[in-house]
Amino acid sequence: MTLWSGGRFEGGPAEALWSFTVDTSDRRLLDVDVAGSIAHASMLAEVGLLTTQEATAIGDALGEIAAEAESGRFSFLETDEDVHSAVERRLGELVGDVAGKLHTGRSRNDQIALDLRLYLRDAVDGRISQLLQFMSTLIDQAKNVGSTVVPSYTHVQQAQAVPLAHHLLSYAWMISRDVARFRDARERIDVSPLGAGASGGSSLALDPALTAEHLGMHGVFANSMDAVGSRDLAAEFVWCVTQAMVHLSRLSEELVLWCTTEFGWVTFADAFTTGSSAMPQKKNADIAELARGKTATVIGDLTTIMTLQKGLPMTYNRDLQEDKRAVFHADDTLSGALGALGGMVASAAFDPPPPDAWVTALDLAEVLVERGVPFRQAHHIVGGLVADLVAADRDLATVTGPELVEHDARFTVADVARLDPVESIAFRRTSGGGSMDSVREQIVVLEAFLGHI
Ligand code: ARG
After folding, report:
1. H/E element, 219
2. Is the whole model's pTM more than 0.90, yes or no?
């Protein structure tokens, strides 16, 4: 029995229509659907569209449905077109004809728009707390690695020496912006569309602000067509997820490289690595590879939800039923990735080799700049030294003080101290740059951000 059977429809739907149009993916919206209905029923009673007895009967039965769902006793039937139909059908079984009053002043169009916003609000909260946990893991590891120095890379070539902690914190900063994006999105999501009805509102004396208040939502729709026809908030959520996954994919790529014998920067606990069925020596970073790979599927979700909206005439069209798959899949994927990758990062033991000696070349050029040499000229002078050393099959670490002075009289023998990659970071002055002072300052700010929630 569909919600629209009888009336103008003779007979039931064709099997081909049913199997093509029924959505079972929305079953996970049952708890928010019930919460929305409870708020709607309360509002209907408060404005006099339900008697107190009717509202109590409906409210109690909805509570029972929520309890059935909670304990896994709620049964969906093949004849339930979607989650809204299932709840209304069960309500009818529990309270009889009065169930038919719940849909007063409401359409599935504003109902699904509400359910989606309630789901998104919870999802945002859940992902924010996981992202903060992930940041905290990165900060802990930044503290664990102390003043260990690694090369920073540009073009996958060793660039400048930096504290490994500085590298790890770069991801904490990216993730802090992911958190901020989710928080921004939450403001727009937390607005109730209930009362918009099918698309044009209602002639009944509904009080949408009251329903919103019951749901703890901070705002109410301003345009009923926008309220039922828009999905930019679902898209914004999926974009927030996608950008966070893209950040995780970058970290994942680095973790995969770092645990190779070629890099030798890190090992992970056995519990967070996988073996090979064929090669006994292998210990693979499959979690990181999958986080990287699953990012592709979330980018697919973003494409789905953008394309669903593209060129769609106002207001609700059944196309929009497909939004949920993208939202749920993106949400589940980020949640899973943060859990697994977070565990893997927490289990990491870092022990990277020191950077190549060449990473101090820029520091050496800056010594000359401090003595008044134009940077372009200093670059040229140090470049000449690099060329001489390469020709002699040597590197910067082997240069002596007198050799420096011989290469350019503005150097002093003491400048040789600047050629040790590990020592070189102590000379770094830029606030936010790759020095231990900067790392300590960053940790203070990031920890304040974590405590902010
Ligand atoms: N299952 C539908 C969806 O997810 C609910 C809204 C259906 N509304 C309608 N008028 N057919 O979008």
Report:
1. strand 219-220
2. yes
